[in-house]
Amino acid sequence: MNAPVNLSADFLNTIRSIVGEQRVKTDTDTLLTWGKDHTKHFAPDPSVVVFPATTEEVAALVKVANEFNIAITPSGGRTGLSAGAVAANGEMVISTDRMNKVLNFYPADRMVHVQAGIITEQLQNFAKENGFYYPVDFASSGSSQIGGNIGTNAGGIKVIKYGMTRNWILGLTVVTGKGDVLHLNKGMIKNATGYALQHLFIGGEGTLGIVTEAEIKLERQPHDLQVMVLGVPDFDAVMPVLHAFQSKIDLTAFEFFGELSMQKVLDNGHVQRPFETQCPFYVLLEFEAPYEPIMDKAMEIFEHCMEQGWVLDGVMSQSLDQLHNLWRLREDISESIAPFTPYKNDISVLITHVPAFIKEIDAIVQENYPDFEICWFGHIGDGNLHLNILKPEDLSKDEFFAKCQIVNKHVFDTVKKYNGSISAEHGVGMTKKPYLGYTRSAEEIAYMKALKQVFDPNDIMNPGKLFDL
Questions:
Q1: CATH class assigned to 225-334
Q2: Distances in Å between the alpha carbon of 292 and those of 191, 297, 423?
Q3: What is the distance between the terminal CA atoms of the chain, rounded to a whole angstrom?
Q4: What is the sign of the dihedral through the CA atoms of 156, 159, 164 and 165?
Q5: Which of 160, 201, 353, 392 would bridge with 381, disulfide CB 3.0–4.6 Å?
Q6: What stretch(es) of the chain map to CATH 3.30.465.10?
Q7: pTM of the predicted structure, to 2 decimals
Q8: Residue 26 CB neighbour total at 10 angstroms
């Protein structure tokens, strides 16, 4: 793959003058690596990859892209699951890999100012080293970048207590599709001066502009975390267990996964089964227990759940190592099923509707995929389910995805029935774009398109993602 003819020498020379010769790449390996994310639905085909180091360089690149009518795909850690960072049509990829610095730290404000390319885990470690805590966490935290987290409003495993990425953003510096630099909210907690424009870029998937810097709120560190993994007999038992614990203890996480998901993790040989009883489904719950009465209360609730038949077996962490290994049963699922080319559904409804919703989705799955392996898991404590269908060896990728997409309509009709979301935390990108109307009304989409034209009148920012103009 070589740089296509539409990239003129003038264009390449201009962007090289902005960032330097070594930070403009057109070789095949770089194009294929930085032109994709974790999805496998669309083949990457970018024209050039550029590695700016500052907001000013990004703004200059966007202005040049407008001048030469070159589309842009923003690229962070490339861990996305909806093809939001796939450059499939000759775009210029702007990578934030070099924009990975902590710019300022404000202990009195519990706030840190970072560049968008900082790795999520890097931010978590910085917070910990300074006596604070950044609670947005998920399996890809070791490689995802804050800019990508903001672009998709990432959630993860702690949403039940701490909320989504949006809850932790106090300010953003963005480069709009016109190349303007906006400093939005500037880290303030209280600011009643009109439209909160920063929220348009959180979850905007890079379609309005590129997030280059963020002021991020931090939290106190949690104390004496404990984890329990409980085996449950069926879907119906999950929500009573959640309610039993949540009514007496403040949970920091409540996760859910099926036996097949656990088996895929165990097959990798890195962790062991938590207890002898093999159960259809499992829940993992986490809570702070700095005082002995909290531990006593947790055991009391566990025993009550056993008596009610909601729990078949269970284990509580007895050490930090065991806590980490119990978490791996949940956190290693995505990596463990990746070789099976899973077709992923990331759906959510109100917690109130979860039991009925699961029953209907399960019935659809059983009827339409009787011979497919189905991995259930998710953040069920906040109404978010991950339905992963694994590709059989005898089907090609295209045949498999075609079969899955036929059933999407039934799944998303059910999501719409319960006023839910077709994408709880992975974004829309290109994979969920055809289904946006199941969650957003025609009027909403029209307003979204109008906003896009205000910030990006030439439609150069991540075109073809979220919706088509």
A1: alpha beta
A2: 41, 9, 40
A3: 29
A4: negative
A5: 160
A6: 102-220
A7: 0.92
A8: 16
